[in-house]
Predict the 3D structure of the following.
Amino acid sequence: MKKLWIAFICVFVISFTILGWSGFKIYQEKPPIPDSVVTVEGITIIPSGNITAGQNVWQAMGGMELGSIWGHGSYVAPDWTADWLHRECVFILNEYAQTDFGKNYDNIDPEQQAALRERLKILLKTNTYDASKNIVVLDPVRLRAYEDNVKYYQKLFTEGHEEYAIPEGTLKDPNRIEQMASFFFWSAWAASTNRVDDNITYTNNWPHEPLIDNKPTSDSIIWTGFSILTLLGGIALLVVYYVRQKHNSIADEIPKDDPLLNFKPTPSQKATIKYFWVVSGLFLLQMGLGIIIAHYGVEGHSFYGIPVAKWIPYAVARTWHTQLGIFWIATSWLAAGLFIAPLAAGFEPKFQKLGVNALLGALVVVVLGSLTGEWLSVMGYLDGDTWFYFGHQGYEYVDLGRVWQIALSAGLLIWVYLVGRCIVVAIKNNKSEKHLMSMFLISVVAIGGFYLAGLMWGKNTHISIVEYWRWWVVHLWVEGFFEVFATAVIAFLFAKLHLVKLKSASAAVVFSTSIFLTGGIIGTLHHLYFSGTPTAIMALGAVFSALEVAPLTIIGFEAWENIRLSRAAGWADKYKWPIFFFVAVAFWNMVGAGLFGFMINPPIALYYMQGLNTTAVHAHTALFGVYGMLGLGLMLFCLRVLYVRNDWNDKIIKFSFWTINGGLALMVLISLLPIGFMQTYASVDKGYWYARSSEFLYSPTITVLKWMRAPGDTIFAIGILVLVLFIFGLATGHSLKKKK
C-alpha cells in the first residue's frame, strides 16, 4: 500500500503543478482585449469599454445557454464567433467584387474569387493590435462590415428568430445590442487574426472558415497522432498489468445472512431520506425541461403548438436543465456521504441530524433562489450588476449568480465537516479500513474545495481565464473527484456487506484513483484547445485526455465483478438492482466517456466537432450515463440499507432500469449521433458556421432526425417517472412487496 500511496501523491502533485503552469501561460498569452477599435483614419468603431460591457450583456441574457462563443455553449442558436466571422467575410467579399467587377462575389469567375479571398485573408489575418495604445486599427471596409453586422443583430434580438429559439424582445436597448455585437466582433477577431510573430490565430485557427483559409494547424494534426499513440500505449500497459494481477476480490467467506440485516439507522441517516425525495423531484423537473428544449429545436418557441417560450424561453429552459442536472446528481452524492458517515464511524456525532436537516434547507434555498434569479436575468428584470450576483453568470454549468454560488460553496464546506468528522474517527478507530477511509476523506475534502474554483473569476474577467477555471469545476469537480468519491463509497459498501476483501478493495481504490487522475487532472486542458490558449495547452490536453480513456477500455471487468457480487449469496439478491445501476455506470463509462469521448477529444476531431450534436452525445452518455447513474445507484443502495428488513417490488426497479438505459441509447443512436455526424460533414465541407446554421439544421433530413428523439425520450421519461414514483412509494409502502 505504501508504494500505491507514493504513486498517488506523485500523480497529484506533478499533475497540479503542470495544470497551474498551464493557467499561468494562458494568463500570459490570452487574446488581448483592446480598449477601443478604430479605423486607419481614426474613426472610432468600438468605443472604450464596449467589448467588456458587451460580454456582460451576453452573460446576463443567458450567455452560453443561447448559442455559443468559441464553440462552448448550446446548440440551437449559432456559434456567434463563427456567425459573425462568416457574415463579415461575405460582406467584404461582396464589396470587393462590386468595386472591382460590378457584381456580387458569387457571380464572378472562380479565379477572381480566389484573388479576392487571398486579399480578404491578408486583411483579416494581419494583426493590427497596437499594444502601446491598447487599440486595434482596421481598414475602413471592416467598419462598414461591422455596421452591417450590428444592424443584423439588432433586428435578430429585437424581432426574434424562431429557428434559433430567440423570442421577440430578447434585447430591446439598441445600445446594449451594439455592445454585445462588439463582443461578438472581438471573439471573431481573435479567431481570425494571427498571433504576433506567428501564422496561427489566437484560437488556433478555429473555427473552420474556408473564405480566409482557417483550417487545422499542424499542431492539431501532430498532437492528434500523439494522442492516439498514447491511448494505444496506455491500453497495452493496463492490459499487461491487469492480466498479471489476481482478481479474486470476492471475500473468502461470504456471510450466510445479510450483515446489515440488524442495521438500525441513526436519526441523521433517516433524515437523508428527504434528500432523496428532493433528488427525485429535481430529476423529474430536469427531465421535463429536457423534453421542452428538445422541442425548441424543431418548433422554435413552442411545445406541440403551446407557446411556452413566452414564460420559459429557451435560454431559461436550458439553463435550468443543465443546472438541475448538477443539482440532483450532487444532492444524491452528498446524501450518500451523509448516510455512510455514521456507518463508517460506528456512532452519530452530536447535532449531526440538525446539521443534515439545516444543510438540506440551505440547498433548497440555493436551488430555488438560483433558478429564480436566472429567470429574472434572462427576462431582463435585473438592473446594474445584480444579474451577476443574483441572476445568471452566463457560463454553462456554473450559470448561477455569485451570491448563490458562494452559498453553495459554504454548504459544501458544511457537508465536508459533517462527513469528515465521522471519517476521521473511522480512520482512528478501525486500522483495517484506514486506507479506504483515507481516500474517502480525500475525495470529500476535494469535493468541497474544488468547487471554490468557480469563484476565481469576476464579472469582467477575460473569457479565456474564465474557461480555464470553469473547467476546473466541470471537469475536475464533477468528472474528477466525484468519481473518486463514488469509487471509495462503492468499495466501502461492498466491504460492509462482506462481499469483498477489504485489503483488495482498498488497494484497488488507491490504484484506480491514481490511474484515473494521471490523465484526468491535466486532461482538463482538452476543453481549452480553441479558447484563446497557446499550443502547449493543445499538446498537454491531447496526450493526457487520451490517458483518461485508457482505463475505460478494461472497465467491462469492473462491471462483471459487480454482477458477480450481486450473485455471491442468496441474500445479496436484494441489492441486485442498485448494483446493476453501478454496472450501467461501467457500461456508459466505456461507451459514453470512452468511445464517444475520444470520438471528439483529439484536436483534429474537436476542431470540426466542437459545439455540434457530437458534443451532446458525449454529454448525455457521460454526464447522465456515468454520473447520473452513479447518483441513482448510490441513492438506491442507501435506501436499500434503510429498508433492509423490507422486500422491495423489484419488478418496478427492473422496468425503470431498462427503460432509462434503453431510452438513453435510442435517444443517442437514432437522433443525436446521426445529426452530429451530418453536422461534422457539413463543418468539414463548407465551414463550421454552416453546420450551426438554421439553413442546415432545418433541412428536411435533419428535421426528421430531430423528431426521431421522441421514441427514446418517451421511453426514457417513462423510466424516470416510474423510478420517482418508486422512491416516494417506499415511504407510503406502495413500492414494497405485500406480505402474504
Remarks:
- The chain has 25 helices and six strands.
- The two ends are 50 Å apart (CA to CA).
